[in-house]
Design a protein that fits this description.
Elements: H1 11-31, H2 46-94, E1 99-102, E2 107-110, H3 112-117, H4 130-133
Antiparallel strand pairs: 1-2
Helix pairs in contact: 1-2
Length: 134
């Protein structure tokens, strides 16, 4: 069957368009960041079944990648916490004064020990500018 230019598809074409639209509607879940679903079709058309299966393969890959990224994030968080604890222990044991300069933000953070080494209390140099302490 043919259709008028610009008109809706007819016959088999209309059926295929409807099936593709149904798959598209299912995939809209992924737009919201939900990937724990499978695309389903009742179509007898091999091409539509193939499209659904390929989408499911892609969803599986996305789920695996998200899982791997979440695991990597958890491992990194543990490593950061361990290193932070180690650094805090070292700083406490050595009684060193430390400072941190966030160059992009133009902000300097000084430890209370650093302030005492300068002969001031930390309230006097609570949030110094780069020019105020260099």
């Amino acid at each position: 069957m043919s259709r008028a230019p610009g008109g809706p598809p007819a016959g088999r074409d209309a059926h295929l368009v409807a099936e593709i639209d149904a798959i598209g509607n299912q995939l809209c879940q992924a737009v919201d960041g939900t990937f724990d679903f499978y695309v389903h079709t009742d179509s007898d058309e091999i091409a539509i079944q193939k499209l659904a299966q390929l989408n499911n393969f892609t969803l599986d890959a996305v789920r695996r990648t998200i899982g791997e990224l979440e695991q990597a994030r958890r491992e990194l968080e543990v490593r950061v916490e361990e290193r932070t604890q180690r650094l805090n222990l070292i700083l406490s044991a050595t009684n060193d004064g430390v400072w941190e300069w966030e160059i992009d933000a133009g902000h300097v953070t000084l430890s209370p020990r650093w302030a005492r080494m300068l002969g001031q209390d930390s309230a006097e140099i609570d949030s110094p500018s780069r020019h105020g302490w260099v």
